[in-house]
């Protein structure tokens, strides 16, 4: 009987250790360098655009499938947008869009600590702050992401990523989100 109990305890301990190595949860935050490239007219009015600096924050999971391959789903609050300079206006107008973003990244480990990350991202508009009456933004944004990740320790990591929007930000303008993200995070 003691051998059966000891075997069961060893089995449970081994299973917990294996699962801990396969799934890691964490948090991340960082800076966004966002812009909205595309057509430089809105309802026939010409304007120039500049990028904005904003932020992102959220939770991350890493599911290790092979020794050099993992899937990393994330749930992020991310702000993006641009500053508009209309030709006949005295001021600049900032349009900031807040999204709930869900990237799902495939991570290919090139070394034990350096990974190449690529994958799709679905984003849902939570709010829009703007200083000018710009047409309402679309509530869904789809993007493709690519970047690099670096594990500084087993728990601390940094990432750099480019997100290329594939859907228009507004139904009345040919403008898409474009974001460079720099992140730091902690895995538990």
UniProtKB/TrEMBL annotation:
Domain Outer membrane protein beta-barrel: 19-169
Transmembrane segments: none
Signal peptide location: 1-20
InterPro entries the record matches: Beta-barrel_OMP_2, OMP/PagP_B-barrel
Keyword annotations from UniProtKB, A to Z: Signal
Protein name: Outer membrane protein beta-barrel domain-containing protein
């Amino acid at each position: 009987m003691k051998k059966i109990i000891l075997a069961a305890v060893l089995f449970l301990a081994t299973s917990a250790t294996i699962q801990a190595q396969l799934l890691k949860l964490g948090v991340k935050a960082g800076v966004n360098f966002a812009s909205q490239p595309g057509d430089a007219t809105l309802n026939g009015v010409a304007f120039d655009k500049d990028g904005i600096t904003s932020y992102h924050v959220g939770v991350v999971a890493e599911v290790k499938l092979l020794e050099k391959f993992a899937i990393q789903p994330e749930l992020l609050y991310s702000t993006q947008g641009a500053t508009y300079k209309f030709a006949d206006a005295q001021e600049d107008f900032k349009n900031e869009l807040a999204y709930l973003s869900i990237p799902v990244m495939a991570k290919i480990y090139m070394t034990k600590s350096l990974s190449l990350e690529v994958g799709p991202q679905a984003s849902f508009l939570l709010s829009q702050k703007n200083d000018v009456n710009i047409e309402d933004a679309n509530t869904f944004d789809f993007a493709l992401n690519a970047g690099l990740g670096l594990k500084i320790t087993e728990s601390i990591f940094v990432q750099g990523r480019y997100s290329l929007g594939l859907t228009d930000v507004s139904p009345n303008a040919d403008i898409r989100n474009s974001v460079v993200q720099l992140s730091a995070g902690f895995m538990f």
